Amino acid sequence: MKSVRDLLEAKSIADSQLSNSNIDRDLEDVLKNICHIQINPNKFVDNAKMEEAVKEAQKSVPKEIIKKNQIIVKEGEPVTERQIEILKEYLPQQLSEEEIKEIVIDVADNLGASSMKDMGRVMAEVRPKIVGRADGRLVSSIVKNYLNNK
After folding, report:
1. CB neighbour burial string for 114-123, b if at least 16 within 10 angstroms, e if fewer
2. pLDDT tens digits for range 94-113
3. Angle 71-77-83 from CA coordinates, rounded to 5°
4. What angle do CA 96, 99, 105 make, to 5 degrees?
């Protein structure tokens, strides 16, 4: 906690110098208060240094290597949190419900879909845009909801 000691020392130096000056006691107190308020820790974020520290920390973390055809989870065994984390690294980033709604609305509007009769056409166009990034049941429910409320 060197920085805390440095701050306390700086405040002490300011107090001492003001006490040794030949100024009015009230003015001295005001100036001491101002010094105590102004002497603060440096709180800005140095993004370059932070990024460098992150990269350095990443170097010390061993990379998980999965070989082709390596079994991560055996059938019938309970899945551990560690295995789930390993598997999540290989999944594509999942779309949020809002992102899915935006895709559905865009596709439906471009197709001129206006009722549930158009559900198949909308799903056929949406599917390639969300494959592997969203649950089909959720997408289907969003399409139904959108077409029913149109």
Report:
1. eeeebbeebb
2. 899 999 999 999 999 999 99
3. 55
4. 140
What pLDDT digit, counting tens, does each position of 29-82 carry?
Answer: 898 899 888 888 777 777 888 888 888 888 787 776 777 777 777 888 888 888
Q: Alpha-carbon torsion 45, 47, 51, 56, what sign?
A: negative
List the one residue out of 93, 150, 91 whose CA is nearest residue 122: 150
Cβ neighbours around 54 below 10 Å, total: 10
Long-range contacts of 55-64 (CB under 8 A, 24+ apart): 64/89
Cβ atoms 131, 97 nearer than 8 A: no
Cβ(18)–Cβ(39) under 8 Å? no
**pTM for this entry:** 0.46
C-beta of residue 87 within 8 angstroms of C-beta of residue 72: yes
As given in the structure block, the two tokens for residue 129 are 């845009």
Give CA–CA dist 123/137, Å, rounded. Answer: 11
Q: Are 100 and 140 in contact (CB under 8 A)?
A: no
